[in-house]
Design a protein that fits this description.
Strand content: under 5%
Largest sheet: none
Structural class: mainly alpha
Radius of gyration: 11 Å
């Protein structure tokens, strides 16, 4: 079962990958415009959380 909670998704990413991989995925996400999902509230929330994570 997939969890759509963006915080849970980031937690899984951080736990399962090295810091370099996490930072690369973060940079890729922040540079991506979202394509057809750019107006999706879940994508926007995930992107906002990613920006906050990057700043931290």
């Amino acid at each position: 079962m997939r969890n759509s909670n963006p915080i849970f998704a980031w937690q899984n990413l951080v736990v399962k990958h090295s810091p370099g991989v996490v930072l690369q995925k973060l940079e890729n996400l922040l540079q991506d415009d979202g394509g057809i999902f750019k107006d999706d509230p879940a994508f926007l929330e995930f992107r906002s959380l990613s920006m906050q994570f990057r700043i931290t």
